[in-house]
Design brief:
This protein has an eight-stranded antiparallel beta barrel. It is an alpha+beta fold. The longest helix has 32 residues, at 291-322. The protein is built from 14 helices and eight strands.
């Protein structure tokens, strides 16, 4: 889009070179003529990116209000109902679609919704091109839409970036991951656990994303920010594609937004990188004709950017102390090996199969317990520990009729006895705590000097 803003260079140059005290206005310039292809391309980018940002988490992410969730256009009428109708009548998808929040951005519903957004954008471009066919350029609209895209991209990068700078997105592997056979990991589980096991790397990756978001806030650094964002998002998209992470649609569109911001400067970048010719100044016009108005706009952009940065840091620190590495730990925190388990007084009871007998009990969180069965599979339970009465209650979210209630006696720091009832049977267990700090992944750490590779 380098040709899209040629007349803006005179405006930008006038504002940049205007001395203080000078008349705060810019003389009119001849109207630039965009070619037909450029006009259609801008109409499509405007329509498609606007609809996409409105229908996904991007626009709600820009409305930075603590503890307030703004619904996206894709969750309400009419786009939500249009997507459901399209799924049933265009793609002939039978059965209900998953529309609730699952953590995946690549649900069937998301792909159908994106198809609807694309179709609506094409229709909008056709109508717009007919109605507005005499328009010579969209310089004014482009500069304001570019501002919107800058902050849309910045807010996403700041959110994801600080979720890694404060290691929350990929936490250190929980107890059950430390014990689960590697062959049982999904590709996404491998990625999450490997990055989470190296907090310095996660912080580094997050810092790169946060840096791109910070640079995008101010006009003077926005091109560098878009370049950093492009590099970041290409890496993220590659990881999503190769490790089956269901954020492929979003990461791909963040690449497109980065390219949109870089498009007007592509010739300057090519000249700087690949030729010995002088590179001219930016051709991006200022938002306003008056210098004072542009200064106020710059201050407002900086204030909003600082607010988003502060909010992400504040929420990250709060989450770190509630669900992250500094979260409260249960009194029985640790990995407990079941050394003896009797059912209705029988140690070798035929009442329970290996898929029902416990091998380990993992107390990692205050309200949840992981049970490792004798066949090495895991079962998650909701838990309630009463330290005063020394009682432990377990329930299954997937089975409302299943429950277990125990009294516990901790005779030593590494010894635990559970007595009670589980699913209608009397249970007695003796457990011994495994020192998880001795696990290689936990205690290996970093070494400047290695005479031999230590790959275990």
């Amino acid at each position: 889009m380098a040709d899209s803003v040629q007349t803006g260079v005179a405006v930008a140059s006038s504002i940049q070179s205007e001395p203080q005290g000078a008349i705060e206005s810019v003389s009119s310039e001849p109207v630039a003529q965009w070619n037909l292809g450029l006009r259609i391309a801008f109409r499509f980018c405007f329509a498609y990116f606007t609809l996409y940002c409105l229908s996904t988490q991007i626009v709600p992410g820009m409305i930075a209000i603590p503890k307030v969730r703004i619904p996206s256009l894709g969750t309400i009428w009419p786009l939500h109902h249009l997507s459901l109708w399209t799924a049933a009548h265009v793609f002939h998808i039978s059965g209900p679609l998953v529309t609730n929040i699952t953590g995946s951005g690549d649900r069937v519903f998301d792909w159908v919704e994106n198809f609807c957004v694309l179709s609506l954008a094409v229709v909008a471009v056709v109508i717009w091109s007919i109605v507005d066919r005499r328009r010579k350029n969209y310089i004014a609209l482009h500069k304001w839409f570019r501002l919107f895209v800058r902050f849309a991209l910045a807010c996403q990068l700041l959110g994801y970036g600080f979720a890694k700078v404060i290691p929350l997105q990929m936490p250190f592997p929980p107890f059950y991951r430390l014990l689960e056979p590697f062959g049982n990991f999904s590709p996404m589980g491998v990625l999450w656990s490997s990055i989470g096991a190296s907090r310095p790397y996660e912080i580094f990756v997050g810092s790169a994303e946060a840096l791109a978001g910070i640079l995008l806030i101010l006009p003077r650094t926005s091109m560098l920010g878009a370049l950093v964002a492009l590099a970041d998002m290409i890496e993220v998209f590659t990881l999503n594609m190769t490790y089956d992470v269901p954020v492929k649609l979003l990461s791909f569109h963040l690449i497109l937004l980065s390219l949109f911001l870089l498009a007007p400067d592509v010739r300057r970048l090519a000249s700087f990188l690949f030729s010995n010719h002088a590179t001219g100044p930016s051709t991006q016009p200022a938002l306003f004709r008056r210098l004072r108005a542009n200064r106020i706009a710059l201050i407002l952009q900086a204030v909003f950017g600082l607010y988003v940065i502060f909010l992400n840091i504040y929420q990250g620190i709060e989450s770190w102390h509630t669900r992250g590495g500094a979260r409260p730990k249960p009194s029985l925190y640790g990995i407990w090996n079941v050394e003896e388990m009797s059912i209705d007084g029988q140690i070798r009871s035929p009442l329970l199969t290996d898929s029902e007998r416990w091998r380990r009990v993992l107390f990692d969180f205050t309200t949840a317990v992981q049970l490792q069965r004798a066949d090495d599979s895991f079962m998650g339970c909701s838990s309630s520990i009463n330290d005063k009465d020394k009682t432990l209650s377990l329930t299954k979210p997937s089975d409302k009729n299943w429950k277990a209630s125990f009294t516990f006696d901790r005779q030593a720091s590494d010894q635990l006895i559970l007595d009670g009832a589980m699913d209608g049977h009397k249970i007695h267990m003796k457990l011994k705590r495994l020192d998880h700090e001795k696990l290689m992944l936990v205690n290996r750490g970093f070494h400047w000097i290695n005479d031999y590779p230590f790959q275990r």
